[in-house]
Design a protein that fits this description.
Layout lengths: L1 E10 L2 E11 L4 E5 L6 H9 L3 E8 L2 E2 L5 H7 L1 E4 L11 H8 L6 H14 L1 H5 L10 H13 L5 E5 L7 H16 L4 E5 L2 H7 L2 E6 L2 E7 L8 H10 L1
Parallel strand pairs: 3-8, 3-9, 6-7, 7-8
Antiparallel strand pairs: 1-2, 1-4, 4-5, 9-10
Helix pairs in contact: 3-6
Length: 235
């Protein structure tokens, strides 16, 4: 679904990511781990077209590296950004309508919003409430639902557990498991290594802008060589 080769990402004169390769197969959840400043969000920004980058980015076999942000979205990329970034002064329903901007049919969009209200009944209860007044967990549900309204081929999740209470983090990862079970292809960026590994098929670990280690999740078992390596990254 997503294939990245020799990706370099720049912020002004600073190179944040150095020559990385990644693959996300259809229906998989692949996690990109790493400490603060490792280059995780920079990688997502390059994929979505909001950071200057060189290298190859293929979505479903098509080269998208030189496409605009809008065109990448139309090709099937959607992101739930770090910090949720809901439209605080709009209602929950209005936020979802923004996520469905690519729909030509209001009836189809309404039906899709209803689908996510079934998935997240709390959002239905809060549909007329300003998004900025929601709890952190509710805002994360809204951000994920808004991203999914575009029927993406791949969903990018940037730090979905950031700043949330432990019981809410558990619920967010249950949502990720459900999405994966429904066939959603996911690229997950996280710092919560244990939770991320538990929902993933494959793991890449970034450190100082390079892929430090990578492997199937069953290779990251307790006491394994890869888990010991991963622990070293976070010390």
């Amino acid at each position: 679904m997503l294939e990245i080769n020799s990706l370099n990402v720049f912020h002004g004169p600073i190179q944040a990511v150095h020559d990385i390769d990644m693959i996300v197969s259809e229906g998989q959840c692949v996690t990109l781990l790493g400490p603060n400043g490792a280059g995780k969000t920079s990688t997502l920004s390059a994929i979505t077209g909001t950071a200057r980058a060189t290298g190859s980015i293929r979505l479903g076999g098509d080269q998208i590296a030189h496409m605009s942000v809008d065109d990448r979205s139309r090709r099937g990329l959607a992101i739930s950004p770090e910090g949720r970034r809901v439209f605080a002064n709009l209602s929950v329903r209005e936020n979802l309508l923004m996520g469905g901007a690519l729909y030509n049919s209001k009836a189809q969009l309404s039906a899709k919003i209803e689908q996510w209200f079934v998935q997240f009944p709390t959002l239905r209860e809060r549909s007329d409430q300003l998004a900025g007044t929601l709890s952190g967990g509710e805002q994360q549900m809204l951000a994920i639902s808004r991203a999914l309204l575009s029927n993406p081929r791949i969903l990018l999740l940037d730090e979905p557990s950031l700043g949330l209470a432990p019981q809410i983090v558990s619920k967010i990862f249950d949502i990720i498991r459900d999405l994966k079970a429904q066939g959603t292809t996911i690229l997950l960026v996280e710092q919560n290594a244990a939770a991320a590994v538990s929902v993933s098929d494959y793991v890449y670990v970034l450190n100082n802008g390079v892929i430090y280690i990578h492997g199937q999740t069953d290779q990251f078992g307790h006491g394994s060589e890869l888990m010991n390596e991963l622990t070293g990254v976070y010390v």
